């Protein structure tokens, strides 16, 4: 593919998608002036399978898979417990990454704050953090609903991670996906 940069199109963004990644590509330039070339590579990394300190699982309720109406909602039920060598963990955080286009429904923070051991709930751009006083050997269950506000096709899985705030290497990570996809 050839790009001709001239004074009339010097500020026009031009791009080309590389058909084979990985692959060998060459860029040649000639002429006078200044040009900016950028490459972007995006990929997903599977989470590690280390679950020796915490037990973590998720159930996903498919509220309306057969109905293509928007917004769709999914109920997440997270089960977690401490399975390490001590009687309990330090303060723990359950970090729930949202599926693309989804966010917690209104009132989720207040709902979760009423659950055992929950001290604080924060929602950022695409992550819901549930701060727990500690996790004990008994399984704790946290249920909330996420709603699709933006339709995204070909959804990739998202992660749920639980970790010890003071010992972040003590963690467990799992993936979840939209059961309707």
TrEMBL record:
Record's GO cellular component terms: extracellular region
InterPro entries, sorted: A-macroglobulin_rcpt-bd, A-macroglobulin_rcpt-bd_sf, A2M/Complement_sys
Sequence ranges assigned to domain Alpha-macroglobulin receptor-binding in this UniProt record: 89-176
One Pfam family cited in the UniProt record for this chain: A2M_recep
Top-level taxon: Eukaryota
The protein, known as: A2ML1 isoform 9
Natural source organism: Pongo abelii (Sumatran orangutan)
